[in-house]
Amino acid sequence: MTVPGAPARAAAGLALEWRVELRHGVPAAAAVLAVLWSAVLAAVPAGAAPAAAVYLLIIDTAGFGVLFAVVLVLFERTEGGRDVLAVSPQRAAEYVGAKLAVLTALSAAIAVPATLAAARERSPAAAAAALPPVLLGVALLSLLLVGLALAVCGGAGGPGVLFTRLPLVAPLVAAPVAQVSGALDHPLLYAVPTTGGAELIRAGLLPHAAPGPVPLALGALYLAACAAGAAAQACRAVGPRTAAGAPSGGPPAVRAGGAEGASRAAARAPAKARPVRAGAPAARARGGAVGGLARIDLRGLLRDPMLSALLLGPAVLALLLRWGLPPVSGFLADRYGLHTEPVTPVLLAALVVLHVPLMMGAIGALRTVEDADDGTLALFRVSPLGLPRYLAYRLAVAAVAAAAGLAAAVPLSGLAPDVPAEGLPALVAAVGLAALQAALLVLAVTAFAASKVESLVLVKAAGAVFTLLPAAVWWLPSRAVWLLAPVPAFWPVAVLPGYGAAPWPAGLAAGAALSALTGAWLLRRTLRRLERG
């Protein structure tokens, strides 16, 4: 058999990667974010839009592919796709390069309309002239961040790395933000390679604030070299062994007989995982099937530091806001004349009231999708527990965890110190309605996501909605606000003290009724999907 050349293998790898990501909805997520962020920047006053776009492109757009890259690699390992690739002609560099190319192209695609929306006051030619440095900066940042994420997390065996190892990449985003904002101004910041990419983005949108062409060129070269090094490390961490390079005692799939052995290994992998969670019959004596499932989850929680850290996340988030927001607010007031006190309700709604349910709902959704992937739900379907009670348990845990997290985070955050006594019932109503959003997120993900990758797409979209909705309710005209009323997450914000879009008794009733109707529809769809297997 003739082995195809490198160009043909690279083209085939790119086509395959595009089809895989298209099937999982990654390009759809990029399209949604492109529309969403462009609309946000178009709503920002024209004078402030370029500065806002610089931060948005650095913090969100350039790192768009980081989570998806890691989850795709973990998913391919779990499903046996990496074993199939081990007996194919594809090399490690082609495998990693395809992921870097597709995810970087999607980041650049998001940046195009966002840049044009931010530069709308310029002439068409001047706005188009902003694109080359911006796209170069976004592309180089994406290559470095995605490559480092694969190098750090790609060799791990489970999704826990998303919360344990992946945060190690965060300083590479924090440093250029500090440099661009002026919070820190030191030459050593240019030793961080991402600073060069941030300066390229700023050169396109804020040319008067950017350094000259020589520092920009040196920064771009330094960033490109670091991105190449990260890609090389990613190849070592996640690249599949090729048929030519696999050792004689290679992967089980190779020893079993090529691609057919890989398929058999992939088919056997879920079967190995099924007995692990099926051992609950003994637990029926104490608390029944639901009690047994709770004990299994508790044992997993105690063994898994990642899950424990996530449950502590609301308190950590609240303390970071309590201690970090005052100096940030002072910096914004001194440098830009922006005062955060008038928008404290928006910060409370976006960073606490809706963010904590997003965290807890994401955990519950990923656990449920993981149970579906490894075949555990097939056992629950024929067990005394049954799918309805299993789902009821997952929804109750998500809602209760969100309520407990909010009960800790709201007072700890320091964002609700001036709520008068008469406003406490409205605050409690907002927290109660917000806790329901965690359960709705679990249902929404399980109703529409067929894999961990698709569940991550939906969680990312939900994160964007939960973050922007409080700002929209705050700044939209009073009548236009009611266009958001069909969204269940609208009602916790509407009754929150400081907003007053709806009186809390009526808002609590309407929000609870809408959440119940939405949850019933999502539950029926989820049960149909899971019953079909």
Automatic annotation (TrEMBL):
Q: Where is this region: Disordered?
A: 241-261
Quote the InterPro entries the UniProt record gives: FLQE3_permease
Q: Which UniProt keywords apply?
A: Membrane, Transmembrane, Transmembrane helix
**Pfam families found in the cross-reference section:** FLQE3_permease
- Tell me if Membrane is a UniProt keyword of this record: yes
Q: Is Phosphoprotein one of the keywords?
A: no
Q: Give the transmembrane ranges.
A: 26-46, 52-75, 96-119, 131-156, 305-325, 345-369, 390-412, 424-450, 457-476, 504-523
Q: What is this protein called?
A: ABC transporter permease
Q: Which organism is it from?
A: Streptomonospora arabica
